[in-house]
Amino acid sequence: MKRFISIRELTTRINRRLAKDSKQLLKYKPRISSDHPIDEYAIVDIKTNSIINFHMASELQEFARSLGCLKLMEEIAI
């Protein structure tokens, strides 16, 4: 049986994991305006204040699984 978790809960889990490496997942809106705005996510190194990696919302679930923040029986509730 699958357990659904919210985006907010998932980003909290990811930020807890990334805090060990002085990194943080930040959410932002792209500058391109469209009818269907997409939230994007970026990993930022807190020490150097530089962007390390970009992740769109569709890739967030796979990224969380690679970090070990999302179990096999969990999915993101949309």
Summarize this structure briefly:
The chain is α+β, with helices and mostly antiparallel strands and 78 residues long.
Features:
78 residues; 2 helices; 3-stranded antiparallel sheet
Structural features, described:
This protein is α+β, with helices and mostly antiparallel strands and 78 residues long. The chain has one domain. It is 31% helix and 32% strand. It is built from 2 helices and 5 strands. It has a 3-stranded antiparallel sheet with strand order 2-3-4. A two-stranded parallel ribbon has the order 1-5. The longest helix is centred in the N-terminal third of the chain and has 13 residues, at 7-19.
Strands, helices and their partners?
Blueprint lengths: L2 E3 L1 H13 L3 E6 L11 E6 L4 E7 H11 L6 E3 L2
Parallel strand pairs: 1-5
Antiparallel strand pairs: 2-3, 3-4
